[in-house]
Amino acid sequence: MRRSLAFLLTGAVSATILLTTGGMAPLPQDAGAYASVLSDTARPEADRARDATRKTAETLAFAEVEPGEKVGDMIIGGGFFTRVFASAVGAGGEVVAWQPAEFVAFQASYGEALAAADAMDNVSAIRSPIGAPEFPAGMDLIFTAQNYHDLHLKPFAADTAARVNAAVFAALKPGGLYVIVDHAALPGAGLEAADSLHRIDVADVKREVEAAGFVLEAESDVLANPADPHTANVFDAAIRGHTDQFMLRFRKPA
Hints:
The chain is α/β, with parallel strands linked by helices. The chain has 10 helices and 9 strands.
């Protein structure tokens, strides 16, 4: 059974979650829950050096990742979270890593990351068009970090996000989780911000994902940065690595 609101804090880090009841509650501390993932030497040293800024443990706790689960990493980029999940679910679990075919065609490193993921013992790789992720059925969790906005890039069809969300809904078990982390745009910025700034308004994400049948269960401000002006491209050196990010957890109704 999944832990309910089992969130991890490390050091002096603190965060809050917004429950669907509308109240705010502190994250309970569980300092050792993902210690083995953070220290796993099977993960590259460069990955482990990024855990503090990427809030890896807190993110795993928010996504309620447990050993033995079947987890989908959606649009894996360089594969950072694919490697994290591979460690977290262990030998009894499975990670399905999806890199859209368009990304692989655009940049060789995306294909290399997918091939490296596929070589891991408990990871299987899929490459399919961005509007048609081929996740297998029976997933416990599908997760995407800093890439949901890519579903709204100009080269892709206007209904790409709707098609992806429907595919995620179909792949998840009843009660399964869909967790989205992305760079925040200004409220009301419109979907154009996805292409111009690589950001998205959190309200647009909620609207789209709920339209697919999901229920918003919680959100976390652990990756928030109020100092981000939200008007710079996320690749701008002035803000890169320090953007204001939201984290949302949706559940497929049982």
